[in-house]
Give the backbone structure.
Amino acid sequence: MELDVRNAKVYAYTGGKSFDPALPCVVFVHGAEGDHSVWGLQSRYLAHHGRAVLALDLPGHGRSAGQPLASIEAIADWIVEVLGAAHVPRAQIVGHSSGALVALEVAARHPGRVDRIALLGAAFPMRVSTELLEATRTDEPRALQMINIWSHGAYAHYPSSPGPGFWVHGANLRLMERQKRGVLPVDFAACNDYRGGLAAAAKVRCPTLFLIARRDLMTPGRTAQDLVKAIAGARVVEIDGSGHAMMAEKPDEVLDALRDFLSSAMPT
Amino acid sequence: MAAPKPPHLDTLSLHAGQQPDPTTGARAVPIFQSTSFVFRDTDHAAALFNMERAGHVYSRISNPTNAVLEERIAALEGGVGSIALASGQAALHLAIATLMGAGSHIVASRALYGGSHNLLAYTLPRFGVETTFVAPRDLRAWGDAIRPNTKLLFGETLGNPGLDVLDVPAVAAIAHGHNLPLLVDATFTTPYLMRPFDLGADLIYHSATKFLCGHGTAVAGVLVDGGTFDWEASGRFPELTEPYAGFHGMDFQEESTVGAFLLRARREGLRDFGACMSPTTAWIVLQGIETLPLRMARHVENTRKIVEFLGTQSAVASVSYPELPGHPDHELAKRLLPRGCGAVFSFELKGGRAAGRRFIEALRLFSHLANVGDAKSLVIHPATTTHFRMDDAALAAAGIGPGTIRLSIGLEAAEDLIEDLAGGLRASQKA
């Protein structure tokens, strides 16, 4: 569905169901150079299991208009405006990679709007190597190739996403290539420049899940540990045999972890 | 961390799409010769049917062995995925049936495999899909033939049997200038010799029966999507960009930004037309692909030696191979096919049909049959076999003469093949 935020079109995939703001809402936030389709299976499942789903295309990505936002904090504030446009008072926020940092910031800055957060492939600081950061500015094809290789943990997946017969390395590369020129350096600079991770984590009071892929080279599990320690009661689930692109490489395992976390009883 | 490099074709030929079986530890790809797969529970079943989870339900739609092949060929081509099918013809049909219906139009190269020509010229018009054939080298003709209802441009990377080299970048640019996709049949080149997605093609299919399988042991096809074409922006493909009543109102483009074509092709085309590949066939083709780079290098090496030999023979009027300076696509081939122009080519025998008959009947190593891309060397006379439905004018337009002999060069010792051909040539000239 399409929303209007700051006089710009925002696209949100609603999981193949009409969006009903009366249902518990799950917001999916993609990472750098992605779009809503990275959440295809997980978002579609939850939409057909009692959730109102908003799998967003961030500004300047996919079908959403505008320019990419330059900081994690700015995206977090924008997310809350999206909730307003969709008439959603509170939501569960699921984010991947830089989207995980966005979910963290939303929970810290707008605690009254967030029920729980799931952080996939999170890291703090989310430093980008000098070589990759430079390539995002000067040699985008090379940068995409580096990201794509580092994002995958295997040459085979069962079952692959969005279904049998898809080669997830190829699909991920092509999805990144589909984003507009100039989005990539802004996205990666936002990751690299983000400084508020530990301060935000200290403010989080809602239930929090970390999903860590054991073969993640982009955001290795150790780089999430400071955040894990800073959030009281944070739950950690590790995914075997997957790299950073865990929603595509291990879609069932990611879905099962999200489903269990999002549907578990709220702590009293 | 040092900048990583993508894996080479040789490595992907062995590893893409498969890792040791987690249950048994089997290193080779298992053959999952099962029609259907048990659901974990009713929720799992419903989720699989509704594309909320990935997995296998019924082997007409997908199968674990086939999925290995599908991922592997997609990896080799640099695509987003593929669908394994019963034959190359099934792959061509699925591509067309996914993109269009009655009232649609295709612009196709005139230099096509006879079976493809039959489908486009005779069968599809009965279902309301028309084709305009153009000379593949006439770039202006491609553009001039496009109509408001055109949905697809289509050609072979190496035209059968004259080896017209399709100028993929140029034809793709024409297609994209009209918001249309380009489909290529890459059977003769395989990803070892050309990766058409890198050159601008949007969809690829193979008769996997040929070099991918490589041993003449299975009839098979694969249809590959590059994931590059923007169906939404094109505005010509409501099949992919509007809700489909046949699958719960799914909008395939919304569902998968880069996989809409394959999702619809599998969820509708395999479901309804049913031209699926047997898992055993998928396994046979996978065995072939494991040695594809080694075989293709040898195929090309042998072919070059034989082309050179035939060029020196008095019984041979002409040899058509793009690596020869006299071939009309010589310069294009150097640019698009630097690793070689394949192992199928034709030559014109002096003495016409009678000489052709004597030549074929004198051969001892070359097998006279209707196939190409076998490990063993093959020979055929197109005018009386693969292209027999074409009249003389259509044959000439496709670059075929009455004395044209097509060879598919195998993996034998080149010296033995040359000796066999020499015997055939001597016999051909004896009245």
